[in-house]
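Objective 1b of the project was to move from sequence-level analysis to a structural picture of ligand recognition. The entry below was assembled by the postdoctoral researcher (A.K.) and checked by the PI before modelling. It contains the amino acid sequence of the target and the SMILES of the bound compound, zinc ion.
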Amino acid sequence: MKGDSRGKHPHAYEGQMTELLITHRGGCHCGRVQFEVQAPARLSATECNCSMCRKVGYWHLMVPRSQLKVLQGKEVLTTYTFNTGVAQHYFCSVCGVKSFYVPRSHPDGYSVNVRCIESDTIQQLDIRQFDGANWEDHIGELAPLPES
Ligand SMILES: [Zn+2]
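Corresponding predicted holo structure:
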């Protein structure tokens, strides 16, 4: 099953799936939202130029839902939606920071904002560009969610 889905995305996430997952911790600016995410120590993140991401400066780390644990702050999250309404953009209603959200590209998973990881656990960071301003033309270039 994994082989089938990866075959459509030959350039994406080479090697990442075989790496051990570690626990990264992070949160919003005011600290009310805290999360833990299971991901490799060497991260591949995506920078997107869509109307929202370029204003926020968001670095996407796509993970299966089971790999993100919200430790606290669910009650202060506000949800913003636009365009297709598929993506659920979660913001801290106190400080405005978007630590993670449900992305349109991977609605079964989460996108975690690598800029919000505060623990000293990232050994390497590889940023890939995604032309989200032309989403329909480029969505096929994004890797599928890593297996949980
Ligand atoms: Zn906050």
